[in-house]
Design goal:
- With about 500 residues, the protein is of the alpha/beta class.
- The protein has three domains: about 210 residues, 3-Layer(bba) Sandwich (FAD/NAD(P)-binding domain); about 120 residues, no CATH class; about 120 residues.
- Helices cover about 35% and strands about 15% of the residues.
- The chain contains 15 helices and 20 strands.
- A hairpin with a 2-residue loop joins strand 11 and strand 12.
- Helix 1 runs parallel beside helix 15, helix 3 packs across helix 8 and helix 6 runs antiparallel to helix 7.
- The longest helix is centred in the N-terminal third of the chain and has 21 residues.
């Protein structure tokens, strides 16, 4: 293995972004990826909504194969009766379907306000969180400008942001709107990938974080890359390799080597040791701290807090190979399709999962990428994220079978005859995602995005600035600030922190 001064554990978007940035500054970087190819969990997603513009531009991803089949996908909220609601443009800039004038105007007002709030909060994503501790000078200085920007929105908006920031999305939507499909679509988006329902406290803040992302410079736009999200990860890998980064796949790290209370490298599963002065972990913080470092190198308080990190995954990933295109009662199959008939339906899908049970009617986000580009096998492929799914049921095989049956029933209700088109079906439950991708609890964000695990609390107080608890160790995964999505932001931020010597 080539000599290096920096080892990065994990070849997903954050690891590759950090590798590129550090290599650009002259570091000799080797990326160790456990899987047979780089990209990490990018292939789990099927849409882009928050690719960091710094990463996209600096890495020159368009020169390394990233192209967009559609940089601004429309969403169709499906009706089982065919009375669909279509949301065109970023987060429903234009609505078409049987929606009242009152709801249309109310949504225009609410949408504009939410995008303003998200834009004000967006700079938080690209900063190292302040360290809230004695002896750190003025830790709130970085937040002062953002607070000023919020205040400059005007007194009315400033008060409204403060009012809704820690509330629940059900009440926010219900106060302004009456259309069930419109409320269902946004309740789904606000809770996507999280362990919370629309009525859960603090469900507005993660939605604002989602709305702060962009695609091709358009805030809150949803993009579909050519070749799917795995192609985005592949483009990042090519960019990193072109910068001189050494990518080593099938290289699973067994532990981080520590000598004299300082990191000196890693040991691979096969026993090989790779030495470097700096190790950057772009995998889940809980796994890094408890498994790769180990409690004996951590103080008891940090070990306890790491064991208590919340990482409950509530999303399952469904893939169907189909012998023909399904008909969702006339909906445009090139759209992002949602089965979320109301905000209540989203909440009802979450309720049984709290008790380790499968919902009778899961809510779903559906994409049919083969509607855009043909596949080598000649089949059509449907990709869906189904919510909610239990992460630790008593009977895992039984829960998987029940979840698949519930998903297929939902699809059949909205696309009659689709069951007869199914050539094969694969469903990954949260525990399958944990086993395959190493994400604790199957949580896509490598740790829940909740108020108590965000900003200077992510992943834990004291190590929220990307610098690990052992000298020479840095953290750069989606479990760090600002969180999940296929963005590369945490990795880029971590590299900047390393360069600054923070």
């Amino acid at each position: 293995m080539p000599s290096s001064d920096t080892i990065i554990i994990g070849g997903g978007p954050n690891g590759l972004a950090a590798a590129y940035r550090l290599a650009s500054g002259g570091a000799k970087v080797v990326v160790l990826e456990a899987a047979s190819h780089p990209g990490g969990g990018a292939g789990l997603a099927h849409l882009s909504y928050n690719l960091d513009p710094r990463v996209e531009k600096a890495m020159g991803l368009s020169q390394h194969g990233l192209t967009w089949l559609n940089p601004s996908l429309a969403t169709t909220a499906l009706s089982a009766q065919g009375q669909h609601l279509r949301l065109e443009g970023a987060v429903g800039a234009r609505l078409s379907g049987g929606i009242s004038t009152e709801d249309r105007l109310a949504w225009e007002t609410l949408r504009a306000r939410l995008l303003r709030f998200a834009a004000v909060l967006a700079p938080l994503n690209q900063m190292t969180p302040p360290r809230i501790a004695r002896g750190t000078g003025n830790p709130m200085g970085k937040l002062a400008m953002i607070a000023l920007r919020a205040r400059m929105m005007g007194a009315k908006d400033f008060r409204e942001l403060g009012r809704i920031l820690l509330t629940n999305v059900h009440d926010l939507l219900d106060d302004a709107l009456s259309d069930p499909l419109l409320k269902g679509a946004h309740a789904f988006d606000a809770t996507l990938g999280g362990w919370l329902g629309p009525r859960s406290p603090n469900s507005v803040l993660p939605w604002l974080v989602r709305l702060s992302g962009q695609t091709e410079g358009v805030q809150a736009a949803l993009g579909l890359p050519k070749g799917g999200m795995a192609a985005l990860g592949a483009a990042m890998a090519r960019a990193a390799a072109a910068r001189g980064v050494s990518l080593q796949c099938d290289a699973r790290v067994a532990r981080i080597l520590i000598e004299g209370e300082r990191v000196v490298g890693v040991a691979l599963e096969g026993g090989e040791e790779v030495r470097a002065d700096r190790v950057v972990s772009a995998i889940a913080p809980a796994t890094t701290l408890l498994s790769l470092v180990g409690p004996r190198h951590l103080d008891a308080g940090l070990t306890t807090r790491a064991r208590q990190l919340k990482a409950r995954g509530g999303a399952a990933k469904l893939h169907l190979a189909l012998r023909g295109l399904p008909d969702f009662r006339g909906a445009d199959i090139k759209d992002r399709l949602l089965i979320a008939p109301s905000e209540h339906a989203v909440e009802l899908a979450f309720n049984p999962v709290k008790y380790g049970q499968v919902p009778e009617r899961p809510v779903m986000e559906i994409m049919i990428p083969s509607a855009y580009e043909p596949t080598p096998d000649g089949l059509h492929h449907l990709s869906a994220i189904a919510q909610f799914a239990p992460h630790n049921p008593a009977d895992k095989d039984g829960a998987r079978a029940a979840m698949l049956a519930a998903c297929l029933a939902q699809l059949e209700a909205h696309a009659p005859g689709i069951g007869q088109l199914v050539d094969s079906a694969t469903l990954l439950m949260p525990y399958d995602i944990e086993a395959i991708y190493g994400l604790p609890g199957g949580q896509w964000h490598a740790g829940e995005l909740s108020v108590e695990q965000m900003l200077f609390l992510r992943p834990l107080p004291g190590i929220a600035q990307y610098k690990g608890p052992v000298p020479g160790l840095w953290l750069a995964s989606a479990g760090c600030h600002p969180g999940g999505g296929v963005s590369g932001t945490a990795g880029w931020n971590a590299a900047l922190a390393m360069e600054a010597g923070q």
